[in-house]
Specification:
eight-stranded mixed β-sheet, 8 helices, 32% helix, alpha+beta, homodimer, five-stranded mixed β-sheet, globular, 15 strands
Chain lengths: 273, 273
């Protein structure tokens, strides 16, 4: 991809992820206090010192390197820009996992051009693994090396692994729809947060179904899933434009078109609430 | 602890875990085929090449170093011994997690003396972290170093994280009891398999509630939890003796006596089926 704007920001996204790791890791499994910030979905949405430290570190880098870009951050709010690019930052996606000490949370970094997610990074600092999605593909990397990843090819839900964050987040028709998918998939996994989308990109997971997402939860996932050959839409099959007020907070990620059609038939028409 | 029998086997357990790692890691996230072996709880209990390779590697070491010890293995069955010691091996606890590519499965190694679990190892090869429980305490280790761990001290379930493998494994009165605990704990985590007990030992998780366990699923967990100051009993509060035919397959791990009493009041009298 000969697009210097994209190349510059892809390299920068990697540096942001490095900075977030350095801020977060000393605070993982240290029993730091958590407090409710009042917008919890299941009664508890903790914000940690690590969250704030990581976002501050990333914003410092952005202010120095691309001061003309806008920023939307999970913890520290909006900053306007003039370049048409918006960085969307979620320093710790999966704060419940973080507090439980499990290695299934992640740092999410996206760069959107005119509202469309173009570059996405999912980073898991404790394991040290990272997925970087760009128009040129999705790369998985760890200290030991890197490789281009592709999603699972099988289009039959009977051979696909299903994931969602919490089965008790669904209610009413959404709960029935999820139950329907769960009964058809041989394995269902919970509580993986953003890691589920990385594992979908790597060909391990076939479907991820979630609702109630915010822009910072999803922007980075889109380039990672698309770059690996997967699809990520709303439950009604529309392109996920996380900065667009019309996006309804639902996400359906599928490894391939066959799985996407199957899941869409079950979920289409549901609002996810 | 001046017990050469224990010291020898503690060192050996670490070597077994190293051997299992070497056998398993090349096969993780490689899309190897899985087949049902027919004793599945939720319809799918895959056995992988990695399982068999790891157990074979561990048995080879045991045959060389302690041929007088008995072995009970998840994949390759029983072998009698004459020393009073029995090794209990589960090369991959959490095969569903393994297939999904998540880093929440583990290698379980226990050494029981006259049926009582004395040494336990929980190893997570992909992350490279390990919990080793002995009568002298529980040590967490990674390449970067090691430390003695202690469980969480707070006895209030309102400040404790709850974990179980799959909320849909419970039915009837067990489901109601679990629901009761889930409604009181601020965070519930699923699908962690043995990692939940390691995280309980490390002070992150407060309660783990499971049923339908087999001896190989639980033997290693007992020394890890006890060594860190926690409790691990059946749902009726009895000592877990995994090799004893009277054990009912239930497990309640608690970070401290306060949490144990609270959970026991809810679960006591239930069979877990």
């Amino acid at each position: 991809m000969d697009d210097p704007d994209v190349d510059l920001r892809t390299a920068l996204a990697g540096r942001l992820a490095d900075a977030a790791r350095a801020a977060i890791l000393p605070r993982f499994r240290t029993g730091i206090a958590a407090h409710d910030k009042g917008d919890a979905l299941i009664g508890y949405d903790p914000v940690t010192e690590a969250d704030t430290a990581a976002e501050t570190a990333m914003r410092t880098l952005l202010a120095r390197e691309v001061p003309q870009d806008a920023i939307l951050g999970e913890e520290l709010g909006n900053q306007d820009g003039t370049s048409g690019w918006t960085w969307v930052l979620d320093p710790i996606d999966g704060t419940r996992a973080f507090l439980a000490g499990t290695p299934t949370w992640g740092v999410l970094i996206a760069a959107c051009r005119h509202g469309i997610p173009v570059i996405g990074v999912i980073d898991q600092p404790w394991i040290g693994e990272r997925w970087t999605g760009t128009p040129g593909g999705t790369e998985w990397s760890r200290e030991s090396g890197s490789l281009h990843v592709r999603t699972h090819a099988g289009g039959d839900i009977g051979g696909a692994i299903l994931a969602t964050t919490d089965p008790f987040l669904f209610s009413g028709a959404s709960a029935s729809a999820f139950e329907h998918l769960r009964n058809r998939a041989p394995i269902t996994r919970y509580g993986l947060d953003c890691l589920a989308y990385g594992l979908l990109a790597s060909g391990c997971i076939g479907l991820v179904v979630e609702s109630g997402l915010k822009p910072v939860d999803v922007a980075a996932l889109v380039p990672v899933v698309h770059g690996a050959g997967g699809l990520l839409t709303s439950w009604s099959g529309e392109q996920v434009l996380p900065l667009d007020p019309w996006w309804d907070g639902t996400a359906l990620a599928a490894a391939n078109a066959g799985l996407h059609v199957t899941a869409l038939a079950v979920l289409s028409g549901l609002s996810g609430r």
